[in-house]
Amino acid sequence: MAKPEEKPATEASAEPTAGMSKKAKLLILVLVVLLALSLAAAGALTLLLIKQRAAASSENDTAHAAATAQPGNPPPVVVTPGVPPVFVTLDPFVVNLAPGEGERYLQTIIVLRLADAKFDPVLKQYLPEVQHRINLLLSSKLPSELVTPQGREQLARELTDEINRVLGYPPPPPGQQALGPTGPVQAVLFRSFIIQ
């Protein structure tokens, strides 16, 4: 008799387990579907945010590139007739000239004529290197090279080319005539020029 009593107990315990199993399976299925939907929503949201950041970054890069020239990939220099140039006065320079003709020094104040006001922030960004290159070029000159007006004009052209090179606008190769402005700095002007 023990065996018939065991069968009903086993059958009775098997029925609730099968019922709970169906409920558990349904609950697991619902949880899996909810998890899949939430993962899909999170993925879509992430993709949307990435696209928005990329678009914003692209707009910022375009605006930044227009505002600042990057050496190697500068924006073209366009001189607009009727728009006055911008003049930027640099700090005074005092340098020892090349020692070939005795100890002499040069004191000068340089004014740069820029093609457009949009290049002023670019010049300020590269100003330490511009000043360094000007110092090197000035200190490499002999006093006899700078005494004549032609010598000073030649120095002004060399400084213009060197500053434009620093800003990412190399001069045209020797012998090739430039049709327009070759860089944002159109001219180097000397407000004072004293050799002692």
Question: What does this entry look like structurally?
Answer:
There is one protein chain. The chain has helices at residues 2-67, 120-125, 127-139, 143-146, 149-166; strands spanning 86-89, 93-96, 105-114, 185-195. It is of the alpha+beta class and 196 residues long. Helix 3 (127-139) runs antiparallel to helix 5.
Which features characterize this protein?
5 helices; 55% helix; alpha+beta; 196 residues; 4 strands; 15% strand; rod-shaped; single chain; four-stranded antiparallel beta sheet
Q: Could you outline the blueprint of secondary structure elements for this entry?
A:
Layout (H helix, E strand, L loop, with lengths): L1 H66 L18 E4 L3 E4 L8 E10 L5 H6 L1 H13 L3 H4 L2 H18 L18 E11 L1
Helix pairs in contact: 3-5
Summarize the structure.
With 196 residues, this protein is an alpha+beta fold. The protein has 5 helices and 4 strands, in the order αβββααααβ.
